[in-house]
Each structure stands twice: as C-alpha cells, then as structure tokens.
Amino acid sequence: MSELDKLEFVGREEHLNRIISHVQEPNLHVVLVEGRGGIGKTWLLRALQSRLNQVEIGTSEIIDCDMPVFKDAEDLCTQIAKQLYDYTYKEWLLQLRQLREDENRLSRIAYEQERRQLEKFLVDEINRKSSQQRLVFIIDTVEKLGQEEVREEIWKYISDLCHQLDNAVFIFAGRPSIARQILEKSFKEEELTYLELNEFTHEDVQTYILSKEEQLHFTLGQELAKKIIILSGGSPIMIEFGVEYAYREVIPDWLESEDIETIPDRLQKTGGFEAEMVRHITQLQTSMDRLTLLLSRIYPLDISDIANLLEISIEDAQRLFIDAQSYFFIKPVMGGYQIALHDIVRDLVEKYVWTDIDPDEEWRKRDSRIAAKYFEQKDYQLGPDKRVLEIQRHSDNSDKFTNIEFLIEEAKQHREFNTRRWLWNALYADPIIGFETWREVTDRIRRQAKKFSFVKQLVTIAKEFEKDLNPDQKSELIIFDSKIAHDLQDKSKTENEVRKLEVMLSEQSSNSSHQADIYNVLGMLNTKLHLYDEALKYQQKCLALVQGKKLSSAIPAVANQVGYLYRQLNNFQEAEKYYKLGWDAAMEVDTPNKGLTLVMASIQNNLGFLYGREKDYVKAEQCFKAAIDMWSSVESEREIAHAEIASATISIDNGNYIKAKQLLERALSRCDNKENDNRILCRAYFQLGLNQWFSAEVVNEAVWDVTQVEWDLNLLSLAQDALEESLKLAEKYGIEEELPGILHQTASVYWHLGFQRCDRTLQEQALKFNERSYQTSLEYNDTRYAIDSLVGKAEFDYYAKAYNRISDYARELSDRFQSYQNIHTLYFGRILRIEGDVAFQQANYDFAFSKYAQGIPKIFQHGGFGPYSIKHELNLLQKKIERLPIELSKTLIQQLKSQWKDHKALKEWCDQQMFLTRIRATKQPSSHA
C-alpha cells in the first residue's frame, strides 16, 4: 500500500462531526450534502463511513450513482438491498426482474401496485435489520441518478421510501440538483439536514497542505505551497492535483519555475489552473496515462477489460489495476472489482485533454472500435453462460433453484450493461455503420425478449448520435421509437407518437422509402387507441404501397390487419375480402418462412371466425383445422389456443356447449405462464364464463317471460368465477379491447345470480359492472358492447319492474346508434322486444305485439345465441300467445303475419301458431293471468 492510500481525512471536521451528531437523532431520515464538483464530497463520505463504523452504527458501502448501471430508482434499491442480507438481495433481484418483465404486460394501475409491493418488501427488510442497530446508507454522486426526464419521479420514490423507515438514515451527496427541492417539501425540519460544501479559505488550504505533508512525510516547499494555495482557489481537488504531482515528482515545470505573479497570465491563455492540472495527466508518459484517458470515456473497468482494451497482458493489467487505485482521481466501484475516474476529473479530461490531443476524434473512435468489438465478443460469451444456468435450473433440485434463478438474473443484468457499452461504442466509432448494428440488436431484443424498459434505454443511446445519422436512419429511429410506444401501455405516449408520425408523414416526399412503414405504425397506434376508422385508413395506404412494390412477403400481414379492422367495424364482407387477399399473396411465396406461416395461420383462424358468424360451420371448422396445422408445423403450440378459442366461440353461438367447454379447457392447458399468455387466458376464461352461463339455463317449457327463467346456480357460479378471472387478467395486464365485453357479461351473470338468490348486493354490483361496460365501450369505440350494455340497462330494469326508464334507453339507442341498426340487429331487436314485454305486462297487447312485430325479425336476421337466440325468443312469444283469449290471439297472430310478409320462415311460424290456437279453442279458453 502506498503512502497515498494511508492518507487520513483532513479539513471538513466541522461538517463531519455535525453529520455524525445528526445521524444519531431518532427523528432524522435524510442528510443531503451538496457542493460543486471537486469540492470534497466523496472524501467526506469516506471519512464519514469510517467514523460511523467506529461508533458501531451499521453503515453501508458508499453507493456511487456515477455508474451507467443506475437508470432508475430500482437500480439504486438493488445496491441498497446488497447491503442487507444475502436473502434480501437475491429475493429483491428476482422480484425486480418480474416487475420489469411486467412493465409492458400489466396495466398502469396493476404495475404501480406491484411496484409498491416491491418497495414494501425492501422497506420491511431495512426495518428488520435496523431493529437491531441504527443503519446509515451512504449514496454519492446523486445528481447522476437516472435519466434526466425521470429524475423528479425517482426522487419522489426515494422520498417515499425514506419516510417508511423506522431506524435508518440516508446520506445523499452530489452537485446541486432537483433532490433538495423535493426532499425539503417532503420532510419536516427535524427529519432532514442540509449541508453545503464550499471552497476552503487560504488559511484552510494552508492547514490542509500541512496535514498532507505530515501524513506523506514530504515537503512541498514554501514557494510551491504558496502557489497551490493561491491557484487552487480553495478547491480540494485542485489541491489534490498539486499534492499528487509533488509527491510523485512530476510537478509541471512552469509551476516550479515561474513566479506566482506571472502564472495567472499564462493560465488565462490556456484555460486556467484546472485545465493545466488535468492536461498534465498526459505527461505521466505511462500506461497509467492511457488508462486514465480510457476511463474518461469507458467505465467502470475490471482487470479483464483493461487487458483487452489497452491490449496488454492480464498480468500487466492486474498490476495497473492495483497501481491506479493509489491515485486520488481513481476510485474503486462495484465492490472494488472495477475502477472509474472521479466524475469531475472525467469531465475535465473531456473538456481539456481530448480537445487538445484528439481534435478530429480519430483516437477516440479507434478506442471505441476496439471497445465495440470487445464488448460484442463479451456479449456472445454471456449468452451461453446464461443458457447453462437455465439448463441447470431445470435439472437441479429445488434447493438450488432460487440461487440459480438469482445467478441467471445477475447474468442478465451483466449482459444488458455489456450490450449498452457495445452499442454505444459502435455508434461512437462510426454512427452510420454502428446504427445498423444497433437496429439489428435492438429490434431482436424488442421482438424476441420483449424487454421494453431495456429497449427504451437502447433507444436513448441511439438518440445521442441522432445528429450524425443519415436521413434514412433518422427516419428509422423515429419509426422504431413509435413501435416501442405501441408496445407499451402509455396512452398519452401513443397519442404523442401519432402526432409525431403525422408530422413526419407530411414532411416526407411521396416516394419516400419509409412511407409504408409510417402508415403501418400509424395504423398500429390508432388501433391501440381504438380509433379503428383512422387505423383502417392508414393500413389501407400501407397495403397499397406494398402492393405497388409487389412485396409478396409483406402483403399478407398488412392485409390481415386491414381485415381485422373491418371486422372491428362490423363489416364482415370487407374483412373476408382482405383476409383472402392476404392469403392469395402468401400463396405466391414459394418457400414460406416461420413469420409468413404464422401470418397465414392467423388469416385462416380469422376466416374461420367469420364463417362461423355467418353460420357456415363446415367452412369454419376447415379454417380452424388449417390454422392449427400451420401453427403446429412451426411448433407454436400456444398459438393453437387462438384457434381453439375461436372455434369454441362459434360452438357457443351454435349452442354446442359441451364441445365449446372441451375446446376451452384444451386451450387453457396450453398456457403455463400467466405473464406470457395473459391475452389467451383472458379470452379463454371469458368464453368459458359465457359457456357456463348459457348452459346454466334450466329448460322449462311453461316459461312465458324472461324473468321466469331459472338457472343452475352451480353452473352460474362457475360462470362467475371464470368471468371474474378474465376480468382480473384484463385489468391487470391492460387488455383494453376485451374489457367492455367482460364487464357486460359479468354484469349479466351477477344479475341472474342476484335475481334468483334475491341478493340485492349482487344486483347492485351488476348495475355497476354494466355501467362500466357502457362507459368503457364508449371510450374504446366498441360499438357492439356500447349497444349491448345499453340494452342490458333496459333488461335489468325490466327484471326490477322499473319500467319507466326503458323508453329512455330505447330513445338513447336510437339517437346515438341509429346508423348501426342494420349491423347489430340482435340488440335493436331485443330493445323492441323488451318494450313489448313491458306493454304485455301492462295488458297493452296491441302495442306489445306491434313492438314484437318490429323486434323479432331483427333477432331472426341475426339468429341470436344462448338465452337470446331466435328459438328462445319465439318460444317465449308462443307462451305469451297461449295466455291470451282465443280471439285476441288470432287477431294478434294475424297482425304479426301481415307485418312479416317478407319473412317466409316467420310467416310459417305464424301459421303454426294460428293452427295451435285453433286446437286450443277446442279445449278451453285462456286468459292473461
């Protein structure tokens, strides 16, 4: 150990004692130490750590935020967890991995709930350890914590964390930042101590230098000491430079030879004392010089990194690593396994040294080329390391499972950090070529690993070099950023990206190579916002462009999107047309790859659903089978569940509940991971709930009104369970497009359970669910369920005999959704039937049957399903007729027949009822009871 390693703390004794005193105050939560760079904050923290350990206060290592790994509050918490128990760190890392994987899967509300649970875990662990002794956590360079746009959010998180601690203090040190403003708002005066470090006075500097001379057993000399006192301006780091150079006998010539009176003129020409001090680093003429320059750009570095990047032997790198730590401007980080420059020295080297020695940046680009190649090789090595651990995880016994999971997560974090360094250096070395590497790697991570928070970090790296990209690459970066917005759950971000791309589109020339991509992404973003008309407009423009360029491999996916949007807009004829267009284009590709096969399977599945809705069950099953075979051919087992759910949906509509149940159970069995399969599970449970509900009806031929229908309560409870599970998944994972339907059908099941059990609480919940369905449908532009839930309001009021509001619902349906009456005929027919039922209950038979005359053909046109099938409706109407006097029955049947003259099947039904009425007349009269 060199004499420099043994230096004791000098100066700032007052600050040091004040902090130690405050730390022991029971009400104190936070100490904030601020000062400009080089003022001595880090040295103060080192002395503080040593003193606190001496008075038996549990003190953390100094956690330095001046590392590229600190991207958010959770990264800081990871280092805090390391200071606690081994179990805490391992468990934290595993839960943090889950949180980050869930960031895009979960709805914003569910994500924040999970984040708070993770925060609570750490708080509980800190409080558990601090119950034995007071704990102090020391955090340095806090102004570097997180990316600039999220720093306010990070400090609010940290403030909330500190508030929950029972017997722990956080000491934060850094340059002036937003931290002080937020902390002072959050804490009372007795809970927060603020200290500002300023420059030493001349007297302080003189005392400081004398102490250094005494500790190092050497003498600066009176003249040299005087110069350093004057020129340092009281800055501890400048004093340290002077002491360091004198001790190592590499004092700049001018500092020794020139008079103090002439030196200021010299410094004015060269940038000042700090510029001269940092420039002199390059006069060391050793490998230490090269290492310092390297660390100013690429950090932190371990021994292996140094050997490879400086192209020296591992033995030389090890000696250099040890020697470097004897310099005051080199600091050990990450548990001492790596080193970095003090941030102020790094800034000064960038400002004064590189501009002098490398004006055209060729040296730095050469370093970055070497670094990019090295980190790329390291990235590929880290991949197999992680895979070996994953294999062990599946083969080892359960006792080792948690530890292997933890090691896998550490390997992932290490690889992500390495990937960031690889891509940053590749872009620095050559932005044009580096961007191609960046795009390939980042897009692969987005599509395959789906690590969207990590991808956002990589996008931030690319944006550093945006000005150096060519126009095409700049466009690609903007489009890629918009794709990330589509992948994430943030609605406002999605809306911003739409506006950004629309501006970009207006600025593009008509022959731009990116127009198709822009249209496609705009279509995707508008679909996410449930603006289906806008989405369709953009996807059709994209399709026209890829067709014009005869891109056979691109046409199927875009045509499939167009078909999907037409289906969302309830134009099944156009949907079928575009699905077939996509299929025909795919058939022109001689050798389909996996991606194209997946698209073709999706098209067949979508066609099967359409044919099923059109009651062409044979063609529907053919398409579902083809989709399953295609997904099987590329080993996409979980995708097969899509076809099974779609087929089950058609079976439910057709009343084949046993088959539907089998299909849905098979689909559920393919999903073993709720996080990855949440959409499939959500849809499967939704259809299972519908299936259980529809099959719960107890058949009773004597029933003449919907309120008399009885249900198997066990099956209805199973329906409730399945729908509630579907709703949990939709809310937790932000599956917005499914919410309106789930809410409405859950409302229906709650209502029937409550009605049959005479449970008013369940009925009240049903009303709330249905209202949520209505409002959500309007928000998400889901016309079908907006109409269905509005009809549901009328239905529930009919059950409750609140007849006076039903005409208002019918009027709202007509006013708001009149243009959809030929699309959603079932629901328009049902509202008319409900109005008829009200009139029937009030013995206003002429009005009742005028409503039936209008409503039943609409239900017949659709066919209905479950308790709303045309068969069900006609059976109830028949039973109503049987309750009426013979002559009135005949009159009303004749009125129906005359109004149904264009409906052959319904006219025949009227003839059947007339004959049955005549038979009834031969037996006994009936009256409405």
Structure description:
- With 929 residues, this protein is mainly alpha-helical.
- Helix content is 69%, strand content 5%.
- The protein has 42 helices and 9 strands.
- It has a 5-stranded parallel β-sheet with strand order 2-3-4-1-5, sandwiched between helices.
- α4 crosses α19 (398-429) and α8 crosses α9.
- The protein is elongated, with a radius of gyration of 37 Å.
- Mean pLDDT is 89; it is low at 1-7.
Could you give a quick summary of the protein structure above?
By secondary structure, the protein is mainly α. It contains 42 helices and nine strands.
Average residue pLDDT:
89
Give the termini separation: 105 Å
Q: How much β-strand is present in the residues?
A: under 5%
Overall 3D shape: elongated
Give the helix level as a range of percent: 55-70%
Q: Which stretches are poorly predicted, pLDDT < 50 over at least 5 residues?
A: 1-7
Give the strand line-up of the largest sheet.
2-3-4-1-5
The count of β-strands is 9
Give me the secondary-structure topology.
Blueprint (H helix, E strand, L loop, with lengths): L12 H11 L6 E5 L6 H14 L3 E7 L8 H10 L3 H17 L5 H23 L4 E6 L10 H13 L4 E7 L3 H9 L5 E5 L5 H15 L5 H10 L4 H13 L4 H5 L5 H8 L2 H7 L7 H9 L7 H7 L4 H11 L5 E4 L4 E4 L1 H15 L4 H34 L2 H32 L1 H19 L2 H13 L6 H17 L3 H17 L7 H14 L3 H17 L6 H14 L3 H16 L6 H20 L3 H17 L3 H17 L3 H13 L8 H18 L1 E2 L11 E2 L1 H21 L5 H19 L2 H20 L3 H17 L6 H12 L7 H17 L3 H18 L7 H13 L3 H14 L4 H18 L8
Parallel strand pairs: 1-4, 1-5, 2-3, 3-4
Antiparallel strand pairs: 6-7, 8-9
Helix pairs in contact: 1-2, 3-4, 4-5, 4-19, 6-7, 8-9, 8-10, 13-17, 15-16, 18-19, 19-20, 19-21, 20-21, 20-22, 21-22, 22-23, 22-24, 23-24, 24-25, 25-26, 26-27, 26-28, 27-28, 28-29, 28-30, 29-30, 30-31, 30-32, 31-32, 32-33, 32-34, 33-34, 34-35, 34-36, 35-36, 36-37, 36-38, 37-38, 38-39, 39-40, ...
